[in-house]
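Hi L.,

As promised, 1-acyl-sn-glycerol-3-phosphate acyltransferase:
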Amino acid sequence: MADDSLFLIDIDKILQTKAPKHSKYIPKFVVSYLKRIVHQEELNVFLRDSKDKVGVDFLEACLEFLDAKLDVKGLENIPKDGLYTFVSNHPLGGQDGVSLGYILGRRFDGKVKYLVNDLLMNLRGLAPLCIPINKTGKQAKDFPKMVEAGFKSDDQLIMFPAGLCSRRRNGVIRDPDWKKTFIVKSVQFQRDVIPVHFEGRNSDFFYNLANVCKTLGIKFNIAMLYLADEMLKNRHKTFTVTFGKPIPWQTFDKSKTPAEWAQYVKDIVYKL
């Protein structure tokens, strides 16, 4: 019989793994607060209830748990043959990723992969769909190999090129600059790029916190700690997901730098 604890959210264990030299010095009240804002107890009830679901079935269970409804547009733009890089804005950090994986997973018989933060590998139901990315610590040297393995695979790839959730700047909620990786690798492995727009937003608290941290020069992404809380605040909602037409990989020629092409695709996404 499998040990349920192996796939539950465990803040104590995560801290010990991610900060082995410092975790024992973190005050208990801080750890308790972290458990509360990530909704450890509530989410673990869901994880226990869905422990037999993996991959796309797990994503469907997530959508049911969140009572998320999807209004999907542009499915006719997705060819049934070929390998593609699906790139999307990242307004939420929860429902957006789950929804894209579910929609595309059902369309391509589960042959989808996310390039995601390696912390998500702690979710056993999600792990089969993930290519873990860790740009820091001991795994940093493996980052290029991990990305390349994803593009070499026969899976459809889902990427959020901003690398973090949308921020509010001058009253406008929009992704930070997109990283160029998806351009470089899509050209290298001849994958057409399909732009995706996900309509949604987090709370004012989230955006204000992110802006305060930026103003104070705090490099650690504190706002990320609140993404589970934001996910639950966004329960019982309908989200519009729009797929644009494929952009041939040959489009990304030498007339622009890869970084400029990344912003070009980002602009297309926000026009969908």
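Strands lie at 69-73, 84-88, 112-117, 130-133, 156-159, 167-169, 172-174, 192-198, 238-243.

Thanks again for sending the construct details.

K.
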